[in-house]
Specification:
Blueprint: E1 10-15, E2 18-23, H1 26-36, H2 39-50, E3 53-54, H3 55-62, H4 66-78, E4 82-87, E5 90-95, H5 97-129
Antiparallel strand pairs: 1-2, 3-5, 4-5
Helix pairs in contact: 1-4
């Protein structure tokens, strides 16, 4: 898939005979959300939050095969959620917080909406106890 360069805040995404025009950055956000949807990838991010790790360490912690972990890491790397640093034959994987900060910012209005609803529910429950 070839993504055409952004122009005037939009990105052209060819799809067969059609071309979709999307807001710039949309594809990256979709990729981050897609990567976060898979439980093993979220577990990898949890482990990388503690410290950078080698693939072998992740294999031992996740209990899945090395090729499986490598595929998950590739998806996370393509989504910009992790970075890799080579050290000879070894590859250290590290969490990148910037894309997660963007997801958090996007979730902010939804979180505020639910917090207000939960506060209202709590008030109603407290009134019912009296």
């Amino acid at each position: 898939m070839r993504i055409l360069p952004a122009r005037d805040g939009f990105t052209a995404l060819p799809a067969g005979r059609s071309t979709y025009i999307l807001p710039s950055g949309y594809i990256e956000r979709v990729t981050a959300f897609s990567a976060l949807a898979e439980p093993n990838r979220r577990h990898i991010l949890d482990l990388l939050q503690e410290r950078p790790r080698l693939v072998g360490d992740l294999v031992g912690r996740l209990g899945i095969s090395q090729p499986g972990v490598s595929k998950h890491l590739r998806v996370l790397r393509e989504a910009g959620l992790v970075s890799v640093r080579r050290d000879g034959q070894r590859r250290w994987y590290q969490l990148r917080s910037e894309p997660l900060e963007e997801v958090d910012a996007w979730l902010g209005p939804y979180r505020a909406r639910w917090a207000g609803r939960l506060d209202a529910l709590e008030r109603q429950l407290d009134e019912g106890k009296r």
